[in-house]
Amino acid sequence: MTILLSTLNARYAHASLGLRYLLANMGDLQDQTRLQEFVIGAKTTEIVERLLASAPRIIGFGVYIWNVEETTKVVAMLKRVAPQITIVLGGPEVSFEHGEQAIVKLADYLVTGWGDVTFPKLCREILQGPTPLMKVHAGIQPPMAEINMPYTLYTDHDIAHRTIYVEASRGCPFKCEFCLSALDKTAWPFGLDTFLAELESLHARGARLFKFVDRTFNLNIKTSLKIMQFFLDKLEANPDDPVYAHFELVPDHLPDALKEGISKFPPGALQFEIGIQSFNPEVQALVSRKQDNAKAADNIRWLCEHSHAHLHVDLIAGLPGEDVASFARGFDQLVALKPHEIQFGILKRLRGTPIIRHTEQFGMVFDPYPPYTILATDRIDFATMQRLVRFARYWDLVANSGRFTHTIARMLGSAPFDNFMAFSDWIYSKTDATHRIALDRLAALVSQWLQLQGMSKLDANELVGSDYAGRMDAPADKAKPAVSAPVRQARHLAA
Ligand code: SF4
Question: With 0-12 CB in 10 A as exposed, 13-18 as middle and 19+ as buried, what is 25?
Fold first, then answer.
């Protein structure tokens, strides 16, 4: 095989849409190009051995915030054992501020931004000459109609076992400074009819779980409605054959026509990821996030009360101008709206994002290593930030896991943030751990916490037992190793 396209995905289920786009657009080189995906955590020697097995001349790596450290090791080893192979990098993690990046220094070429046209062009030049002189190639953005869609490249195995990522548009017109999409300035739609035909063919091949990576699915309501109608038609034609779609929404834009469409979906068919990030208007202004908070809250409430959609709502801690009290107010406000999950993220300083302009004024200190998590600001010191990090982890374990649905309401009471923070501090003092807490042990600890808050042992065990049928006093069993999810702020860049 002449060209390998490779990446380390965060999980096996995450089939790389970006690599499939490259393969779909290789033109005359497509027959000589193959995908080879890995999962983070694999041994570097095994990855290198498998890459070398097909004796490629070029390897193109997709580099993301969650795989840059491991990919750097792979590239370093390749350069030692097989220096004749040309290494080309691409992806959001190497598209900005790449001057000093170790992986870029090791590689032969770098394509920044869109690779659909520029990567195959570069490969042609490497293989057929003249040898490209420049190391860094700024990706050319072609008209959307000239980009081949990659969906036929999902294999039957992918369709049966992995998440099928799709995109009806690229880019985002908003400018939230913590987000790489802020640099897009606009959104570019793919041809809708062609896209719908691709969805049709994926569905005919058995795909039932579609995850849209569009930054803002509800930007163009006519398009949103047509895409939703595609899924409604499938559901109506065969109610016993469910189909499931995941979209990212901006929260303050839900016109009646869209609400009507959403309300037609049965339970289990729709999932929305909604970014609130902060309810504090001063913080929103500082990070250039335009959001009508009242409308956003109304829409989330409406979705909870009048639709069957499952809602994940995102908040970010550590933004400039936000202290713990202001974050807590936003958190409590969101809990009161009753979304199914609150994704509590800690700010990351993604390469290229304009958030860096606040560094000095707001004393923002970021970890210099991926995923570049905020460590402290002028309003949240390091120790407090670590308490928030643990809060986020325990929130996932107890609230978002859905394992304690009755118990969590009791734990949160009338001051959700403060009460859960107290629980978080307490459980950390008992376990010294945020991972590898077996479910039996977690349930026992939750019950113990409720007793410390004044509940009888019987009532506490009964309440926890109503959520969890395990043993309350069981010793910890062997916990499964934690699997790291892709960094949430960057998750939609998986494409
Ligand atoms: S956070 Fe969402 S709305 Fe803001 S720029 Fe990024 S993708 Fe667009």
Answer: buried
